């Protein structure tokens, strides 16, 4: 049962977000009051000092979560009435937006949904603009009507966006002043420029693979359902590399019962025809995971998969067995570190 928390700067905007929640519940054929606990409303004001606001908001969030008991990670949804993506900077004095950035970083397991999203002015970096547009789409009110995705490993890049703004902040900028030789406030902050899809119908493997990718420098989707797969494949990051860690024998429990989808996801050609994003150019590497189970029809299917992998992907695809002994074993076998990826890319160069 989901838990909803509303952060708003007025009673009117909080009431509007509650109405949106009621509409989303109706679309799912549910009644909001019967399907979940009453949303917790937290009102904030610009006049309140930043650190005091942070402590109060965090305290109320803890109270709302404790009241609802043990809640699955992605079942806690926080709705914010208004956000400026360019001001989500925890080290710059930008009022409520700075506080909100700190709160978002404090709760990586929550889903964040924004009512009014103010995007920054277009920059000369088209890749950054593309990521910002994708970020706004992933956290808009319309995401309430889509499949619930796992936010823990920052698949949308929201927390990465906040860290990027903090890393770009110079010493004078943090207080709104300009010094003679401003220096970065937090140049040490790591940024994840790569995206990974950890696709497995077993949630334990999906989480393990996603965590491993996140641990070694990727924003990661833990994809465990057909709905999550559709959502993840709609996102199109044009910068950095996009890799997949896929269960070879894939069979989602929520697979639609439609004639056009009566294809086997264990057949890579049919899988890519259902989810074309997996076969696009920005997918740099594909890591296929299997337990080695076999059936009567498997030899022919495996030959077709092998031929497809060699023809289309060459050295950019790899098959590894499971179970793994841990995240470092998977990192080594999948060559997740950037240096290993560069070596693999060098071996691939000139062969395609």
Tell me what the structure shows.
With 352 residues, this protein is α/β, with parallel strands linked by helices. The protein folds into two domains: 3-175, Rossmann fold, CATH 3.40.50; 194-348, Rossmann fold (3-Layer(aba) Sandwich). The protein has helices spanning 11-27, 32-35, 50-68, 96-106, 126-138, 158-168, 203-215, 226-234, 268-274, 298-313, 327-334, 338-348, and strands at residues 3-8, 40-43, 76-84, 111-118, 194-199, 218-223, 242-247, 283-290, 317-321. The strands form two sheets. Strands 6-5-7-8-9 form a five-stranded parallel β-sheet. The termini are far apart.
Kindly list the characteristics that best describe this protein.
2 domains, Rossmann fold, 352 residues, four-stranded parallel beta sheet, 9 strands, alpha/beta, 16% strand
How does the SSE layout of this entry go?
Layout (H helix, E strand, L loop, with lengths): L2 E6 L2 H17 L4 H4 L4 E4 L6 H19 L7 E9 L11 H11 L4 E8 L7 H13 L19 H11 L25 E6 L3 H13 L2 E6 L2 H9 L7 E6 L20 H7 L8 E8 L7 H16 L3 E5 L5 H8 L3 H11 L4
Parallel strand pairs: 1-2, 1-3, 3-4, 5-6, 5-7, 7-8, 8-9
Helix pairs in contact: 3-4, 7-11
Mean pLDDT: 80
Number of domains: 2
Gross geometry:
globular
Q: What string gives the helices and strands in order?
A: EHHEHEHEHHEHEHEHEHEHH
So how many helices? 12
Largest sheet: 5 strands, parallel
Straight-line distance between termini: 49 Å
Report helical residue fraction: 25-40%
CATH topology of the largest domain: Rossmann fold
Structural class: alpha/beta
CATH class of the largest domain: Alpha Beta
CA-based gyration radius? 22 Å
Number of strands: 9
Amount of beta strand: 15-25%
